[in-house]
TrEMBL record:
Record key words, sorted: Membrane, Transmembrane, Transmembrane helix
Name this protein carries in UniProt: ABC transporter permease
Domain of life: Bacteria
Heme found in the keyword field: no
TM regions (residue ranges): 16-40, 60-83, 104-132, 144-166, 173-204, 232-251, 272-289, 295-317
Length: 324
């Protein structure tokens, strides 16, 4: 368990952000209920002027504020790792009489509490408001309110893991974004290219199990996931634990000496560069084929993708980024 001094340090370094995130998480859900009720009352007051019947219904698929909660998990993780590392503050942090594991756990527990506790408070307040105001229906209220706690933690743990592996903010965000679409890059993109090469060999014609879309972290950016079984939320919960473990091991084992470089673990540089080039070849090959509907366009796209992938990976991975 981290020492209280580490929690105090996290509080002092990120106090304004922690307070803002806490308030946003706590108040957004009740505000959604109140805002819907106020709109309903406005409809009732002007019913003669408006066409249709006024119905007090809360639908959490209609662009509620809490659908953006995952963004705050990203912001918090970037502040705790990316910004602190880019400003060169880790030298001070690592010089404190604590182990690396304690430091990472203090950061993660602080972030986890600021994400989970206010959302639970906001959920309870919203339940009380719904009991008081008595809407005709609250669509997906429980599933979405509680599910967003898991989704927010997924975003937070993913970006924390990205920050523990990388040497600056851009690398942290780029690695995190890549992981959110990684199943597409390693499953769907190769299948598309195989279909092109074999003239529609039916790889993409096979029905995909519904649960498989939930291994794509980017799935949770759009709130439609709430329409399916709540049991699928076990998948992001497991992924959150997995990303925490990756982040913890990376933070403990990797040094901070390569500050400013893309990866803190140098052995990742070359394999990741090769993977980026392959993805560039497959991706641009597909776009070349889609644009020209010819195999020649496919080959030209692959060649362009190889060149672009090489230069992007070279300048991103091997060029040191200046500190802020």
């Amino acid at each position: 368990m981290p020492d209280s001094g580490l929690f105090y340090k996290e509080w002092k370094h990120n106090k304004a952000l922690l307070i803002m995130i806490f308030l946003v998480f706590m108040l957004s859900n009740p505000f959604t209920v109140l805002n819907t009720y106020i709109s309903y009352q406005g409809c009732v007051a002007n019913q003669n002027e408006w066409v249709g019947t006024c119905v007090f219904t809360i639908n959490y698929l209609n662009g509620t504020f809490i659908s953006l909660f995952w963004i705050w998990g990203v912001v918090l993780a970037v502040s705790q790792l990316g910004i602190e590392r880019s400003k060169g503050l880790f030298d001070f942090t690592l010089s404190l009489p604590y182990t690396r594991g304690q430091i990472f756990n203090a950061k993660f527990l602080t972030g986890g509490m600021v994400i989970v506790i206010p959302q639970l408070i906001g959920y309870v307040l919203s339940v009380l408001l719904i009991m008081l105001l008595k809407p005709e229906q609250a669509v997906y209220f429980h599933n979405y309110s509680l599910g967003m706690i898991i989704v927010s933690m997924l975003a937070y743990s993913l970006v924390m893991a990205g920050g523990a592996l990388t040497g600056h903010i851009f690398a942290q965000l780029l690695v995190s974004f890549t992981v959110t679409i990684l199943p597409f890059l390693v499953i769907t993109l190769p299948a598309i290219n195989i279909d092109i090469l074999f003239g529609g060999a039916a790889f993409l014609d096979y029905p995909i199990p519904e649960w498989m879309q939930y291994i794509f972290p980017i799935t949770y950016v759009i709130p439609n996931w709430v329409e399916d079984s709540p049991k699928y939320l076990v998948i992001p919960a497991v992924m959150s634990i997995m990303f925490y473990i990756i982040g913890y091991i990376s933070f403990v084992k990797l040094s901070n000496e390569r500050n400013g470089y893309f990866f803190l673990w140098k052995a990742l540089d070359r394999p990741v560069q090769v993977i980026v080039i392959i993805i560039g070849i497959l991706g641009f090959g597909y776009f070349g084929f889609a644009a020209t509907e010819s195999f020649a366009g496919y080959l030209i796209g692959m060649a362009a993708g190889a060149v672009i992938g090489f230069f992007i990976s070279y300048f991103a991975i091997y060029k040191k980024t200046k500190l802020l």
